[in-house]
Structure formats: C-alpha cells, structure tokens
Specification:
There is one protein chain. This protein is mainly beta. It has a single domain, classed as Immunoglobulin-like (Sandwich), CATH 2.60.40.10. Helices cover 0% and strands 56% of the residues. It is built from no helices and 21 strands. The strands form four sheets. Strands 4, 6, 7, 10, 11, 12, 14, 17, 18, 20 and 21 form an eleven-stranded mixed β-sheet that branches. A four-stranded antiparallel β-sheet has the order 3-5-9-8, with no helix packed on it. Strand 8 and strand 9 (92-102) form a beta hairpin. The chain binds copper (II) ion (CU). Copper (II) ion binds next to loops.
C-alpha cells in the first residue's frame, strides 16, 4: 500500500499529512526451519501480512500449492486458522497451516499460489506466488531449479545457507520471461520488535537489471521476504471495471546469526 497524501488548507497554509497505511503486502510462507537433519514432522504456515510492521493481516485464499521433492509433488493438506486482522481486532482473516513429514533426503521446494486479492486503496489486484526451500537429511541439490511458476524467483545463492551479512541474489521470471527493471520489495519478518528510523525503511526496494537479476545484502538474522512486483495484465473488479493485476514472485529465506565466536 502506498501512503496517501492529503492536502489540507488550514488558515491559509497547506498542511501535508499522511494517512498511515501499512506498506508492502507479503504472502508469508514459512516452515519451522529450512535445514532438517533427522526424520521429523515440521509445520508450514501461510499468511498474507505486512511482515515488518506485524500486520495488518489480510484475508486470502490458496488456489494451488505444492511441495516438490526429487521430482515428486506432494499436495499439502492445509488447515484453516482464523486470526485477527490486527492485534485485538474482531475482524478475522484466514491463515493456513500444514504438517510436512520429512522422511527422505532432498531439497523440498514449497509453493503457494493464492487467488488475486483486490486492494481498493491501490485500485488493483495483487497475486503473490510464493516459495521457500528446505534442505533435508543431507541433500542440497535442486534449489536452483525452477518450479515453473507464473511468477518465480530463482535463487542464485544457496537459499538455506545464508549468514546475516550475506548477499542474496536471484533472478525474476514473470510469465516465463526475465523481468527487467522491476521493483523487488524486501521485508524482515519482524519477530523482535525492530523499530525503523523512518517509514521508508519498512520496505526496502532493489531493482532488477535488464535480465531480471537482483541482489540484496541481508543486514541481520531472521526470515526475509523478497517480492518482485510483476505485471499480470488486468482483471475484472467487483464493480465490473478492469483493474491491473500485480503478479508478484515472492521468496522467503532465512539468514542465520553470525556465530558468537566471530562476533
Ligand atoms: Cu495490506
């Protein structure tokens, strides 16, 4: 969401104030962990939120999802959970949780494809196809293989072995083509109550180059989301008019804290 500026004329002078609306939307797709060294069941959660600000959470629907491991596709069995859109709010929205039994070695590529979400404040639809990778039981191959999503970030750095301070690189494909000169929004999943020095820090932005490549140096440990904002054409809105569809490729990675021996 963009800030909405309003002009107010008060006693002859113009005041500019902003109605503070949360900024970038992010479909969060987060496993318990992205490195698994023994057979176990983990949880995966999917939530449509504003990660840096901790909300609000938006309602959304999963229309397709899957977990690829060594060429096989597992269908996740999502359980719906209703959560408040804001802390303490009576307005409830959907989030989804599933168990995943990790019982064989491999890179697990998990994705969620949601129904387009209509955002009245921006007069457009948003659809964020989201993925995350897990390395399990000693196998690390396949994280750089595309799933073949309509909007996808292909990592160029092994995504489950990032230290804080490492640079994450990726290439964005929208409708199968490298997405040149588009914005990639970056947000930290703020589990630590981090305050930003200014509102502009909530969503960091890097651009893709001509060939769809981008990079971002992760400043501290935690889960980080990358959302490449693509063009998905138009869709008919609730009022029957055509609205732009923002088709985003989202990927989540976890950065691990610097070991204390070298801090
Ligand atoms: Cu929102």
């Amino acid at each position: 969401m963009k800030k909405i500026l309003k002009n107010v004329i008060l006693g002859g002078s113009i005041l500019l104030f902003s109605t503070s609306l949360a900024k970038a939307h992010f479909l969060l797709l987060k496993p318990t962990t992205d490195n698994i060294d023994r057979v176990k069941t983990i949880k995966i959660e999917a939530k449509f939120t504003h990660p840096m600000e901790g909300g609000p959470n938006m309602d959304f629907k999963i229309i397709d999802s899957g977990i690829f491991v060594r060429g096989e596709k597992i269908k996740p069995n999502w359980k719906v959970k209703l959560i408040p859109s804001m802390k303490g709010s009576k307005n409830k929205v959907h989030m989804y949780i599933t168990d995943l039994k990790i019982n064989r070695p491999g890179v697990y590529q998990i994705y969620v494809d949601p129904a387009p979400y209509f955002e009245p404040a921006e007069e457009k639809f948003i659809k964020q196809i989201t993925k995350v990778c897990i390395s399990a039981l000693g196998m690390e191959d396949g994280w750089d293989k595309p799933i073949g999503l309509k909007a996808e970030i292909i990592p160029l750095v092994k995504p489950f072995a990032l230290w804080e301070g490492n640079t994450f690189r990726g290439r964005v494909f929208i409708n199968g083509k490298p997405a040149s000169n588009i914005d990639v929004e970056v947000e930290y999943l703020n589990t630590k109550g981090v305050k930003t020095p200014a509102e502009s820090f909530v969503t960091q932005v890097v651009k893709t180059d001509e060939n769809g490549y981008f990079e971002y140096t992760i400043p501290w440990a935690g889960w980080w989301g990358f959302s490449a904002l693509g063009d998905g054409g138009t869709l008919k809105g609730p009022d029957g008019k055509e609205y732009p569809l923002e088709l985003d490729a989202v990927m989540w990675v976890k950065a691990y804290p610097k070991p204390k021996e070298v801090k």
